[in-house]
Amino acid sequence: MPSSDINAFHDLLRSSKNIIAVAGAGLSAASGIPTFRGAGGMWRKYNAMSLATPEGFSKNPSLVWQFYHYRREAALKAQPNPAHIALSSFSLPSIRHQIAPESTFTLITQNVDGLSPPAADEQPRLIEIHGRLFDVLCTSRDCDHVEFNTSSPICEGLAGTEAHVAAGDLDPEIPITSLPRCAKCGSLARPGVVWFGEMPHKLDEIDEIAAKADLCLVVGTSSTARPSTCYAAEVQDRGGKVAVFNLDRSKGDRDADYLFLGPCEETLPRALGLTN
């Protein structure tokens, strides 16, 4: 059975040299960002295949853009919670080396909300494996322009539609000409997130980092879900340790070395030695 001994975990941190964290939707839950697979999750209300696949976008870009406009508006209103801030602080060598001397740290987040902030003026190793909500991609193969856009609303045609999404009443009738367009060539644009069936970002870089890790923190995501299960298992196979921070038990956490249950905005700052 996994341990919940906080003092033993602090000892482990002090001896760890290459630390990675794999974060999921539970990290942002306290910031008001809806989760997807848990109780009340978005995929229990909507069909993921119609709203988060290239095929769904091709069939009905209006529905897809309404859904992602809703998510953009929610993310724009949200603020980083103490778990985000704890990971950001831990990424600073000046802070981390007091807790885990001479260690490295990389945050691999599955979240697309942009709430994992850079720490001060330093650049933490942050990999947004599923892209970003505020990236807007041109759909024309002759263009492929990418633009970071935090406009609210992103276009007038989507203004106010977030209320329909929240109510489970998406309107399929918004004309394609009223949806977001590429700022460079004028073609239809799409959200800059990785959809089901698409390749996550920077997998080769993550593989190199994970191959050296001796401690994997799994934060706010089921330890049975990819990629957390892959990287956590890889670390353990080489003799490293895995610590899971989740609100509830999940099927895969029985294999963890440490398990801290509860809101990660409470458990994570304490486990990382940032609060008492």
UniProtKB/TrEMBL annotation:
Q: Which cofactor does it need?
A: Zn(2+)
Q: Which domain of life is it from?
A: Eukaryota
Q: Does the keyword Transferase apply?
A: yes
Q: Name one Pfam family in it.
A: SIR2
The protein's UniProt keywords, in alphabetical order, are: Metal-binding, Mitochondrion, NAD, Transferase, Zinc
Catalytic activity from the UniProt record: N(6)-glutaryl-L-lysyl-[protein] + NAD(+) + H2O = 2''-O-glutaryl-ADP-D-ribose + nicotinamide + L-lysyl-[protein]; N(6)-malonyl-L-lysyl-[protein] + NAD(+) + H2O = 2''-O-malonyl-ADP-D-ribose + nicotinamide + L-lysyl-[protein]; N(6)-succinyl-L-lysyl-[protein] + NAD(+) + H2O = 2''-O-succinyl-ADP-D-ribose + nicotinamide + L-lysyl-[protein]
Any idea of its EC number?
2.3.1.-
Q: Name one GO molecular function term.
A: histone deacetylase activity, NAD-dependent
Q: Where is the Deacetylase sirtuin-type domain?
A: 1-276
Query: Which residues are recorded as binding NAD(+)?
Result: 24-43, 110-113, 220-222, 246-248, 264
Q: What are the GO cellular component annotations?
A: mitochondrion; nucleus
Q: What class of enzyme is it?
A: transferase
Q: Which residues bind Zn(2+)?
A: C138, C143, C182, C185
UniProt: substrate binding residues: Y68, R71
Q: Does the keyword Zinc apply?
A: yes
Q: Which Gene3D superfamilies match?
A: SIR2/SIRT2 'Small Domain, TPP-binding domain
Q: Where in the cell is it found?
A: Mitochondrion
Q: How is the cofactor bound?
A: Binds 1 zinc ion per subunit.
User: What positions does UniProt annotate as the active site of this protein?
Assistant: H130
Query: Which InterPro entries does this one have?
Result: DHS-like_NAD/FAD-binding_dom (IPR029035), NAD-dep_sirtuin_deacylases (IPR050134), Sirtuin (IPR003000), Sirtuin_cat_small_dom_sf (IPR026591), Sirtuin_class_III (IPR027546), Ssirtuin_cat_dom (IPR026590)
Q: What does this protein do?
A: NAD-dependent lysine demalonylase, desuccinylase and deglutarylase that specifically removes malonyl, succinyl and glutaryl groups on target proteins. Has weak NAD-dependent protein deacetylase activity; however this activity may not be physiologically relevant in vivo.
Note on domains (UniProt): In contrast to class I sirtuins, class III sirtuins have only weak deacetylase activity. Difference in substrate specificity is probably due to a larger hydrophobic pocket with 2 residues (Tyr-68 and Arg-71) that bind to malonylated and succinylated substrates and define the specificity.
Family according to the record = Belongs to the sirtuin family. Class I subfamily. Belongs to the sirtuin family. Class III subfamily.
Output this protein's name.
NAD-dependent protein deacylase
Organism, by scientific name, is Laccaria bicolor (strain S238N-H82 / ATCC MYA-4686) (Bicoloured deceiver)
